[in-house]
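User: Predict the structure for this protein chain, please.
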Amino acid sequence: MFGWTLHGDGRTVAPGKVVAPGERLNWPATTAMGLQHVIAMFGATFLVPSITGFPVSTTLLFSGVGTILFLLVTRNRLPSYLGSSFAFIAPVTAATAQNEIGSALAGIVAVGVLLALVGVVVQMAGLAWVNAFMPPVVAGAIVALIGFNLAPLAWTNYEQQAITATVTLAAVILFSVSFRGFLGRVSIFLGVIVGYITAAFRGELDFDKVADASWIGLPQFHAPDFASPGTWSVLAMFLPVVLVLVAENVGHVRGVATMTDDSVNQYTSRALIADGIATTLAGAGGGSGTTTYGENIGVMAATRVYSTAVYWIAGGTAILLAFSPKIGEVFNSIPVGVLGGVTTALYGLIGLIGIKIWVDNRVDFSLPVNQYTAAVALVIGIANFGMHLGDFVFEGIVIGTVAALVIYHLGGAIARARKTM
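Assistant: Here is the predicted structure, written as structure tokens:
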């Protein structure tokens, strides 16, 4: 598993060539690449716990552990970093607003278990049933409504420190459009730095906890709470996240296969199982749920280095950083204005990922069933429709997901029977 072969002279990658997952550059170059991947994932990975109120250090720890676990389960053949998934923000925010953190962690554990089970089914039955159950029009609608459903949260933070938020948002956009390659891909991270400096000049920083924190110490651990009655009323909000993680993992594997070797596709089921186990482990200890990271795919595409050895370095580095409470408190000190500026862009981008799924798969919106699948789901998600059934509360993401699935499959069946499709 660990028998990487040296690529070429170990220092350079020839034009038109890539460093395959089973290859590596020399160890100094591999280490440098690993640290670059840490920087690439850092901006998004710390942002999720910062928004949801989870401990940053704990999330960082489980992202590193999850990455190493992913490499082991996929037999060291699928390069990927597992960072915090933005799909968890909405249900975690809703769960923690109604209950304690334990209820949110229970939801994360439930998602992880279900995702691993999906991976087992894919291992036995193949991927075709997933594509049939969740075709591009449905998948795109679900991903889009999750992003747009978060828009009010962005405004809540934005309006509290509007000047800092505006500077942060402008910086994110400027970095993104002004640079190509690596700097463009970490525009959100750079925007946070600009916003943080702006907040410092405006006297919006509170550094008391940073000063009191020690340089070395254990992360904060929390246990999931399945016993509280309130937990079961919020678990339904987490179920659509499973569909998002399936789409993200499948897309990741296909992306790597396109850029390296088609044989990588055979590890799709293992990727789902690995991410499911990593998410379950994170939820069991107090961290955010994980997913394969597009930021790191971008780094691989730019460098043409797909060596899994690089990710062992990245995962190990994340684990080491997690044992510094002071670093965790630095991220916890990020003002709401900075978060408001960043999330204004970020939540919109999540929504656009769903729309990109429609575009990439050329979804035919001249068909009424596709029109209503997308239209109804988006409005439900954006308006955050609510429904109470006894002690259970269902909100926009759950209702929108169910609506997309029901409209597409039931509407499609009727259209085929009536021969109007």
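Residues 5-418 form one domain.
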